[in-house]
Here is the input.
Amino acid sequence: MKFSCYKSDLTEALTFVIRAVAVKPMTPILAGIYLKAEGSMLEVQANNFSTGIITRIPVNTEEAGETVVSGKRFQEFVRNMPDDTLTISEEENLLSIDSGGAHAELLTMNAPDFPKVKTPETDRSFKIKTTVLRDLIRRTVFSVAKDESRPVFTGCCFEVHGDKISLVATNTHRLALAGAKLNDVYDDYTFVVPAETLRGLMMRIDPKDVENYVTINFSTRYLTFTFDNVFVNSRLIEGMFPPYDRVIPSSSTTRVKVKTAEFKEAVEFVSLMSKETEYNTVKFIFADAGVEISSNSPEIGGAVKNVEARISGEELEISFNVDYIVDVVRVIDTEETIIELNDRYSPAKFTEPDNDDYIYIATPVRT
Amino acid sequence: MKFSCYKSDLTEALTFVIRAVAVKPMTPILAGIYLKAEGSMLEVQANNFSTGIITRIPVNTEEAGETVVSGKRFQEFVRNMPDDTLTISEEENLLSIDSGGAHAELLTMNAPDFPKVKTPETDRSFKIKTTVLRDLIRRTVFSVAKDESRPVFTGCCFEVHGDKISLVATNTHRLALAGAKLNDVYDDYTFVVPAETLRGLMMRIDPKDVENYVTINFSTRYLTFTFDNVFVNSRLIEGMFPPYDRVIPSSSTTRVKVKTAEFKEAVEFVSLMSKETEYNTVKFIFADAGVEISSNSPEIGGAVKNVEARISGEELEISFNVDYIVDVVRVIDTEETIIELNDRYSPAKFTEPDNDDYIYIATPVRT
Here is the structure.
């Protein structure tokens, strides 16, 4: 095997693919990245059996071939090569990387032993714009559960219904729901995708590339995302989300409109104090023409910031885990945020003005 | 106590002073920073008994007073206040910080309990340009010993002799020696200053402020650095450096001249491989018109880079801990570096062309 390529192309491919290299590989080959040079393309694969990624970059192949090399070390040497172009070759179980007079060589592993990423056999599929999918992930994935006690909540639930798609994520104390329109009409599909796969995918999508589409194929246990020269295969999480409609409050007694940026800055400021407290709690007092955001610790002190707001309905004092609030104001894209509340024990609902496609629910902390 | 000041002034003062706040304070007050507002000045002090720092910033005092507050938390709130100006006041054991509608308050400690930084009573002192002192520290301090088994080697040895000063640092496997001329003539002084104090001082000196002087006062056990509104008091390390002149080779059988930047880049590249090896070792082959720099690991692979060099004398193959080489080429200020060697078991000497004021010695690794 021998080929030359741009350092930037290979670096980008490795940064993406490395996410599917096992952190604690069961066998050495699972710490590896599979390379296959043929014609004008290099195929780069990684597979940890939960996620498998294939990506392709343009290369100049002098001698076709395939090999497997330690992902971490290959990435590090490629990134630190002095020149913009690299020549890479394999001979007698040594992969050589040459660039601007620098030479590195890495022991290789046996290519046929590598568990190649498989395409699921299915005819169920749908298409969505890459940037639309990116936004759906960005605005929900942070709400997944961190602990694995109920695996289904460590993923985002995809729901396709007619020409609509929605993604839902919840850890049972908060919930994020984002929807979008599809260009075609499909059957009803529901499946749960691991958050880790979605975070990797989100990083790979260029938010400016607004005319690009990703095809999603899926079977009962696997799905694949295909776009450009990228192919991501992921296991699906078994299980179903319980009906979450019932946790979305249908009415409210207090309705608040705040400037998103100002509200976010104030919550982040007060979080400096709340993080010193046991439950990371921030208190909100919605009254008159503003919100008072505060946090106190008897051993340390306190912090408070007032933010202007338009409030209709009842005055209310309510406390939240500050992360639940900081996370949502970071993904609200509109200048203003709407907060709807009932009482200090009931969940708050965050939405964007004139947009039904995004709902975030946060359960308060009982103080 | 009540005063107002610029956020940037107070942030800068706290960043510097916080270095003298104890990491593991024996009593709560040692985690504190002492503040004293009077007239147009705020005095800020921290003291961990090894190093004590006093600095002053311009403020507008409305009510004079003194207090002590948690250093870490005060720094964090000051840094995150929304406006460029702050109003700070103390009442009933609460320090309030107000800025742009944000309010934070921190419990205070009893000011008289704070161990204030003391000036040593001595008439022994000398003056040196701040930027000259900064360079002397920068080019030696990285060579101090990391382990505390022989405390004297965890500091830099200052030697004043007539109108000359030199700083020496060694961990017994390498040694850095930097010298400079003073503007006056002094008696012979020798003392050892903890590296930690010097690193903090170095950060505080503006390398562009070339007309500024620092006064160094010292007694048997303490010394102080005084310049601008800064006063740093440090314990001295007991003990003496053994005579180090004898480890500086007086002759060489191989003399090498390399381009500093190119050599540095090559050594850093090969270090990607050497750090995977047990002793972090890099091999240098000085021969013909160049240096071959390489590192190999039987389990992983190898890396090699050639650099042009002018070599006179014997050809030589020699190995070093890569850090010993990377560290010195990062502080060599000249375009070229001179390396003088004898055999593969003898120390190498690094110098700058036409400059007797800097010598670095590195002991090779026996392979």
Notes: Chain B has three domains: 2-113, 125-245, 250-362. The longest strand of chain B covers residues 174-194. The mean pLDDT of chain B is 95. The radius of gyration of chain B is 24 Å.
